[in-house]
Amino acid sequence: MIELQLRKMLGAKVYDSEGAHIGRLEEIEAERGDESCAIVSYLVEHRGPLDRISTWALTNSMQKKLSRRSSAEPYRIGWDQMDLSDPHKPKTLVPKELLTRIKRA
Fold first, then answer.
1. Phi, psi at residue 17, to the nearest 5°?
2. Per-residue model confidence as pLDDT tens digits over 1-52
């Protein structure tokens, strides 16, 4: 079992297996167990900070009017698709074309 300080990883630039920058690590999804948590997936996106600012600054009706391209949707990267051997420089084990994007409400 590997122990990492996840708070230090949030915001880190993430690259795919071919060296292309795919965004920043914005969220880590985990399942809570009795004595530990298991990482399920990582959410990586380009617009994370912009989305947080717009959520704070804009009303819901204004946010809905702003369109989002599908290329701006975050990647959900499975725990088994991420290489954290260097926690300061996380990278995926597959090219970005094989990663799954998710829709956010």
1. -65, -15
2. 667 777 888 899 999 999 999 999 999 999 998 988 889 999 998 765 555 5
Determine the Cα–Cα distance for residues 67 and 76; give it in Å rounded to an integer: 21
State the residue for tokens 């991420």: 82
> Which stretch of DSSP H or E encloses residue 91?
strand 91-92
Q: Are 10 and 26 in contact (CB under 8 A)?
A: yes
The domains found in the chain, sorted by start residue, are 6-101 (2.30.30.240)
Q: What are 20's two structure tokens?
A: 């292309």
Closest among 55, 41, 46 to 6, alpha carbons compared: 41
pTM above 0.85, yes or no: no
Helices (H) and strands (E) counted in the chain, each on its own, are: 3, 7
